[in-house]
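Quick check before the chapter quiz. The format below is the same one you will see on the exam, so make sure you can read both the input and the output lines.
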Amino acid sequence: MKRFVFLLIIGCCYPLSRLQAQVGDPRRDLAIGVSGGYTLNQISFSPTIKQSFHQGFTAGFTARYMCEKYFAAICGIQGELNYTQLGWKEKIETSTDTYSRTINYIQLPILLHMGFGKEQGGVKGFLVLGPELGYCIGESEKRGGEWSERTLSLRPNQVVQQYDKKVERNFQYGLTGGIGMEVSTRNGHHFLLEGRYFYALSDIFNNSKKDTFGRSANGAIIAKISYLFDILRTKKN
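Here is the expected output.
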């Protein structure tokens, strides 16, 4: 697993080294700031559990280093440290029972950032892509309805082992990617709006043959806004 994550990080950074090795317009622009947003998450269970989206939030810190403009692409690398709420909300149609689980993570995305447009004093579109590591720091359950042996017996396929089952794999890894728009001022302030998708390659529960779930991985849609400001800038339009 460690080797796989290492290869993901190398794969993210490799395009930057290729760009730096070619003739381009170099940059040394470093910006830092904060971000916040909204998450919609479901967990891919096998056997299947019917769900609607679990709603949560994310907030954290961002550092971005832009290293080169090659043709129309402005390239760099971006690191983040985020607190994010994931989890699942069950869609129970056989009784009045309700159930949701919130799982809190500290996440570290390491992203290739590629933009197209104006770097300062204008609008730029961008995409981000790369590996993301995470660690579960807590969880909570919320129940409603009757919650009796009778209502539990009505669950499809009799899948009830998830209730009161703590997260067994705190470490999480996966891939994240997204697109967005950035408005920058000439004095070094950046306002970003973006949408992302996170696909976990790891499970929250053990998945051996003797375990209940063969698959239990997060998949999140994330909408976020960010504010960055330059602390190192060597290029002006």
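If your answer matched, good. The first helix runs from residue 2 to 20.
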